[in-house]
């Protein structure tokens, strides 16, 4: 904070840094550090002044957050607040003082501050002196009296005061109030020189009854002549500091997250945007909002399309459900028909098998009967060979009895007649046996079953 403050000032006035800088906000108890570029020897110990009520540290501003050091105007010269910086011209050719101060009352005597005076109007700020024109005037120590045109300050109002000495005798001294030149004057007589190697913050260094009645919250000493532009800048900076003592700090705002609605309103300051950058951000946000609108519209389109798809899906589902129900019915019917077909096939198969079995039995019986007929025929043939050999070898002379020959013929005819039914049956069985061999296939059997029935009839 301290470093930042010094750097800020340095940048503002173009690398001019104060040798001595006292920010009364930095007073810690009785210690007041120098935050200027000068040595630690300028750090102040205020214990004597505070313990004797020559000085006090108070808060000020509407927020009560800023500190000031005030003087009772009672300190003797040897107990002044001594700052060990020799302001003789020989030691510092050009010199500037910058203060934020307020007069709290006026005493009946002279009031000098920032003074190393040991006589001869040495470099000092004369807050009230009656020797510089008609009535009391605010003047500078320039080696002698002159006609001051600067009136005393109003009471209890902080004023930004800058006093500048440029060159020695014959040079120029100037006083600025609240950033504006109040008066410039020729540095009149002698080079400022005193026997003191310090100056007193709040009174004349050598002359009693020159104490000041007022408060300060900022003091700076430069070893250069601050020009008018720099004074204006210093005043601007000091005013902001002063305002901060009266203005409540802005509420803490969360600017870490990008918030389109709140960003420009709440956080432009935090992001340190100037007007041009602010406009650029506004445009960017306009573009982003436009794109968000596009996205919104696309989302709506997609939602509508999704609804249409849902309706169509429901329709398809319904139609598909109907079709599937129909197919289910068909499958049930097919299964029933399949069962019926199975039953019929099994039935046909069984009947065919039975028929084949019957035919095999008949076939075997026929074979037996054929076998028996063959036996009979063989027996007959043997008998013929016994009775008919001569008939075969001899010529029938008419004498041989023809009765045997006639008997044998008759016997053959009789056997044939007796067995003709059997033979017909046998032929039929053979026919069916052959067909049934082919009808071993179930499918043929089914087809031929009806034909067989017809043939049976
Ligand atoms: Ca002197
Ligand atoms: Ca001196």
Concise synopsis of the structure shown:
The protein has helices spanning 2-12, 47-51, 228-246, 260-267, 275-393, 403-438, 442-456, and strands at residues 20-23, 31-32, 44-45, 55-60, 66-71, 82-83, 95-103, 111-113, 125-129, 137-140, 159-166, 172-177, 180-186, 199-200, 214-222. With 457 residues, the chain is α+β, with helices and mostly antiparallel strands.
Helix and strand pattern? HEEEHEEEEEEEEEEEEHHHHH
Oligomer: single chain
What's the mean pLDDT score?
A: 84
Helices and strands: which structural class?
alpha+beta
Radius of gyration (Å): 71 Å
For the record, what CATH class of the largest domain applies?
Mainly Beta
By DSSP (H or I, 4+ residues per run), the number of helices equals: 7
Instruction: Give the proportion of residues in helices.
Output: 40-55%
Which hetero ligands occur in this complex?
Answer: calcium ion
Measure the end-to-end span.
130 Å
CATH architecture annotation name of the largest domain: Sandwich
The amount of beta strand, in percent, is 15-25%
**Number of DSSP strand runs:** 15
Q: For the report, how would you describe the main beta sheet?
A: 8 strands, antiparallel
CATH third-level topology of the largest domain: Jelly Rolls
Q: Any low-confidence stretches, pLDDT <50, length ≥5?
A: 6-13, 389-405, 437-447
Domains counted in the coordinates: how many? 2
**Given the C-alpha coordinates, what overall shape results?**
rod-shaped
């Amino acid at each position: 904070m301290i470093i930042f403050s010094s750097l800020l000032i340095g940048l503002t006035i173009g690398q001019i840094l104060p040798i001595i800088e006292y920010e009364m906000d930095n007073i810690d108890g009785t210690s007041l550090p120098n935050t200027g570029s000068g040595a630690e020897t300028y750090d102040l110990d205020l214990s004597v002044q505070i313990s004797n009520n020559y000085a006090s540290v108070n808060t000020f501003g509407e927020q009560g957050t800023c500190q000031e050091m005030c003087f009772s105007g009672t300190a003797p010269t040897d107990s002044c607040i001594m700052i060990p910086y020799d302001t003789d011209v020989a030691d510092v050719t050009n010199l500037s003082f910058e203060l934020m101060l307020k007069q709290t009352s006026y005493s009946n005597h002279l009031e000098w501050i920032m003074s190393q005076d040991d006589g001869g109007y040495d470099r000092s700020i004369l807050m009230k002196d009656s020797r510089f024109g008609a009535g009391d005037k605010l003047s500078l120590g320039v080696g002698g009296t002159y006609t001051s045109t600067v009136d005393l300050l109003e009471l209890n109002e902080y004023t930004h005061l800058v006093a500048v000495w440029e060159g020695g005798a014959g040079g120029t001294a100037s006083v600025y109030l609240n950033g504006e030149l109040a008066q410039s004057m020729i540095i009149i007589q002698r080079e400022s020189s005193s026997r003191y190697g310090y100056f007193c913050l709040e009174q004349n260094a050598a002359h009693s009854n020159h104490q000041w009645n007022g408060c300060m919250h900022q003091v700076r000493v430069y070893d250069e002549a601050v020009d008018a532009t720099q004074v204006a800048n210093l005043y601007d900076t000091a005013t902001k500091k002063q305002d901060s003592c009266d203005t409540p700090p802005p509420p803490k705002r969360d600017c870490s997250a990008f918030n389109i609605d709140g960003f420009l309103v709440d956080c432009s300051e935090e992001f340190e945007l100037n007007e041009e950058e602010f406009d650029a951000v506004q445009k960017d946000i306009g573009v982003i909002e436009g794109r968000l609108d596009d996205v919104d519209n696309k989302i709506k389109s997609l939602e509508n399309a999704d609804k249409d798809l849902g309706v169509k899906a429901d329709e398809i589902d319904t139609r598909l459900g109907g079709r599937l129900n129909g197919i289910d019915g068909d499958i049930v019917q097919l299964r029933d028909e399949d069962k019926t077909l199975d039953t019929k096939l099994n039935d046909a198969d069984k009947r065919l098998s039975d028929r084949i079995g019957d035919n095999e039995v008949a076939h075997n019986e026929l074979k037996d009967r054929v076998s028996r007929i063959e036996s009979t025929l063989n027996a007959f043939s043997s008998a013929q060979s016994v009775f008919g050999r001569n008939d075969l070898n001899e010529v029938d002379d008419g004498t041989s009895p023809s009765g045997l020959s006639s008997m044998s013929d008759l016997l053959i005819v009789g056997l044939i007649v007796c067995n003709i039914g059997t033979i017909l049956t046998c032929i039929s069985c053979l026919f069916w046996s052959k067909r049934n061999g082919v009808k071993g296939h179930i499918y043929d059997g089914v087809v031929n079953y009806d034909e067989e029935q017809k043939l049976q009839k």
